[in-house]
Amino acid sequence: MLMEVKKELKFILLSIKYNLAREMTNKVTFLTNIIFMILNNAAFLIEWIIFFSIKDNIGGYGLKDVVLLWGLASGTYAICFLFFGAVQELPNLIMNGKIDSFLVQPKNVLISILTSKTKVSAIGDLIYSYILLFIYGFSIKNFLFFTLFIVTGGIIVTSIATIFGSLAFYITKADTLTGNVMGTMLNFDTYPEGIFKGAIRILFYTIIPISFAVYMPLNILKEFEIIKFIAVIIFTLFITLIAFLSFYKGLKKYSSGNLMSARV
C-alpha cells in the first residue's frame, strides 16, 4: 500500500515537472502570470486594510486573522491548481468522450487526468500565501502547520471538484455545476467565517465543506486543538476516498469518443 502511494506521488511530481517545463518555453508569459497573480491578490488585501481602518473587527476577525485567512485560501488553491490543474476540465473531458488516452495508460486514471495540466498562476498564489504567513507571524511551528494545511486544503478542494465533476457521467451541464461550486468556494472562503449564519454556515461543513479546508485550519493555527486537527486529517482522507469512488463508479458508464490521441 505504501509503495503504491509512493509511486503515485512520484508520478504526480513528474507530471508537474513536465507541465512546468512545457509552460516555461515562453519565460516572459510564465513570469508575467506569476507576478500578476501576486499583484491581483495583493489588491484584495489592500481593500481589507481599508475596511479595518474603519472598523476593528469584522465577523470576529481582526486584520491579522484576515491575513492568515487569505494566506491559507491562496495556498489551498495554489496546491489544487498547481498539482491538479485539469480538475475544472474533468466534466468536459467526460462529456466529450476525451479520456480515452488516459484509460490506456498504466497509471491511475483519475490522477493521470487531474495532473495532466498545471496552472502557472498558481505559483503566484503559492508565493503570495507564504508572504502572508510571514506577515502574520513566522515560526517553525506555523510554517509546518501552514504547509500541511494548504496541502490538505488543496486536496479537499480538488476532491470536491472531482465529486461534482464526476456527475458528468450521469447528467449534462455538470461543467456549469462544477464551475459554480468552485466559484462559490473561492468567493466565500476569503471572508471571515463569523459573518455567515444559519444554513450558509451548515453548507460550509456539508455540501461545500470549505470549513475543513480553510476555517478550521485557521483556528488551529491560532490556537491548537487536537480534536480539530484530527477532524481535518480524517475529513481529508474521507473526501479523497469519496472522490475516487465517485469517479470510478461513474467511469463504468463512460462512453468513448474514439479520441485516442497520445499523451507524451
What does this structure look like?
The protein is globular. It is mainly alpha-helical and 264 residues long. The protein has one domain. The C terminus is likely disordered. The chain has twelve helices and no strands.
Rg from C-alpha positions? 19 Å
Number of domains: 1
Portion of residues in helices? over 70%
* Order of H and E elements: HHHHHHHHHHHH
Mean pLDDT: 87
Overall outline: globular
Number of strands: 0
Can you summarize the main beta sheet?
none
Question: What structural category do the secondary elements indicate?
Answer: mainly alpha
Strand content: under 5%
Span between termini: 27 Å
* Tally of helical segments: 12
Stretches with pLDDT under 50, minimum 5 residues: 258-264
Keywords:
264 residues, mainly alpha, 0% strand, globular, disordered C terminus
